[in-house]
Every structure is written in structure tokens, then in C-alpha cells.
Amino acid sequence: MSTPIRILGIDPGLRHTGWGVIEQSGARLVHIAHGVIDPPTDLSMAERLGHIFEAVGELARHHAPHAAGVEETLVNANPRSALKLGQARGAAMAALAMAGVSVAEFAPRQIKLSVVGTGTADKDQVKFMVQRLLPRAGEMKLDAADALACAICAAHHLPLQMKRGAA
């Protein structure tokens, strides 16, 4: 039996940053934990980013992942929203880097394809499949489901060296 590899998935957002932790042992995936980071909306932008940074850093310290998968920013019709989302993503990635966690980035389409089988799946389809792939996960918010999907995608795509934190 192989040594379990712990993977943290992050679905970044300024209002809701989803997170999920899984362990991979061979082809088997096991749910460890999931949740959503909700920075208070009355904080300034810098304070919200700091909140995300601190919370993701604490998750990395508590769960000690070997690797992390972070969803890439989808550039949409609103460049201002994409920029703000990118800042939240940067705060999460910086926290992971500070904790010494290897980070891989995945496009939303790649995550959906990896979990659902189609890159055009909607959030409810992703959540449905995450709950099927990780039956012990129980009920979850969509942001947490997206983060777990990112962790599952990372489990499928990361090279073994990165999963183990090797240089």
C-alpha cells in the first residue's frame, strides 16, 4: 500500500474562498475536510486579502498538505472582477508558498473535465460528482465543492515528485 499524499484544493474568491483537503493513496481518494473562508465584507480590500492569506496559511499548517491545486482566474467580460479575483488567488497562493506547499494551477475547464467528464459542467454537476467521488464528504457549499474538485484534479494531474514536495 502506498503512502497517502495529502492535497489541498483552493477555489479563490474575495467573498468566499472554498477549500478542500483529500488524501490520495494509489487510485483511492479520501475526503479529509472542507469549508469556506468568508472574509467580512465590511473590511477593506487589503484586509480581506490579509484574511484570506492568514486563513489559507492556517489551513496549510493544520492539514500539512504535500501539494495544493488552485483554480486559475477565469478572464470574463468584467476585467475589474477578474483583477479582484486574481488578487484573492494571489493571497492564497502566497500563503501556500510561505508554508512551503507546492502549488499547481488548473483552469476551471480542466477541473470540470477531470471531475465530471466535460469541461462545460455547471457548479451543481461538479458538486454532484464530488459527492459521488468523496462519499464521506457529506453536504457542502458550492465553493467547497469546487475546491474539492480542484484537489481531485490535482490528484489526477500532479507528477508524483510534486505531490511529495520534492524539488
- Largest sheet, if any? 5 strands, mixed
CATH architectural label: 2-Layer Sandwich
Tell me the quaternary state: single chain
Structural class: alpha/beta
CATH class: Alpha Beta
Mean pLDDT: 92
**Can you give the helix content as a percent range?**
40-55%
Principal-axes geometry comes out as: globular
State which percent range the strand residues make up: 15-25%
According to CATH, the fold-level topology is Nucleotidyltransferase, domain 5
Radius of gyration: 15 Å
- Our measurement of the CA-to-CA distance between the termini, rounded to an integer number of angstroms, reads 24 Å
> Structurally, how many domains make up the residues?
1
Order of helices and strands: EEEHEHEHHHH
Compute the number of helices.
Answer: 6
How would you sum up this structure, described in words?
- Mg(2+) 2 binds at residue 71.
- The protein is an alpha/beta fold and 167 residues long.
- The chain has a single domain (5-157), classed as Nucleotidyltransferase, domain 5 (2-Layer Sandwich).
- It contains 6 helices and 5 strands.
- A 5-stranded mixed beta sheet has the order 3-2-1-4-5.
- Strand 4 (67-71), helix 2 (79-98) and strand 5 form a beta-alpha-beta unit.
- Helix 1 (45-63) packs parallel to helix 2 (79-98), helix 3 packs across helix 5 and helix 4 (123-133) crosses helix 5 (142-157).
- The radius of gyration is 15 Å and the shape is globular.
